[in-house]
Amino acid sequence: MALAPQRLWTNHACIPDTIIVPHPDIERFVYAKVGFLARQLHRISAAILTEEGTAADRLTGIQCGVLEVVNAMGSVDQTGVCEILGVDRSTLAGVVDRLQERALIERTVDPVDRRSNALAITSAGRRAIERERVMNERTHERIVEPLAPEDRVRFLALLTQIVQAHSRYTGISEDAASLTAPE
Questions:
Q1: CA distance 162 to 160
Q2: What are the phi and psi torsion angles at 67 (to 5°)?
Q3: Residues with Cβ < 8 Å from 181, sequence gap 6 or more?
Q4: The pTM is what?
């Protein structure tokens, strides 16, 4: 069932109390496109996450992702984290450096493959992700709040289906991309 796109009304920043009604072509060729909506959803997510927690010791999204992967895996090499999260090696190296500086993660030379680094989460890292999980869950709930409970499940399932179908563009390994949508 196709849903009709909703008209997006906006207040013009330079003219208070004025509502701009976009041209039908803008609605059709911009507002009703997945790329535009995905960017808007990301902006909404970032803004709500900022409202939920503005502490100076907040972790970035990628830092949380790395900590969650390392926490779940126990010990994992950096290449494995890259494959699971779809992050390039140089980006991950910088993220790991910052996490290590904050004593949230330990990096050691992998005893099996000395060319590789093994990552392990510290107790401080576990405490940090516990705090982040609370803020992330509140953010998630606020984002999907306009949807009925059954629509929330369907929305996440549909997003997951799209991401999995196009996983070759994400850099996430096929094994990681085959995970199911959260319930």
A1: 5
A2: -60, -40
A3: 153, 156, 157, 159, 160, 161
A4: 0.73
Output the six-digit token pair for 118: 């093994």
Which sign, positive or negative, has the C-alpha torsion 42, 44, 47, 49? Answer: negative
Domains and CATH numbers, the chain: 61-129 (1.10.10.10)
How do the pLDDT tens digits run along the chain, 183 residues long?
Answer: 445 444 444 544 555 555 566 788 888 888 889 999 999 999 999 888 888 876 656 888 899 999 999 999 988 889 889 989 989 999 999 999 999 999 999 999 877 777 888 999 999 999 999 999 998 899 999 999 999 999 999 999 999 999 889 988 888 776 664 544 344
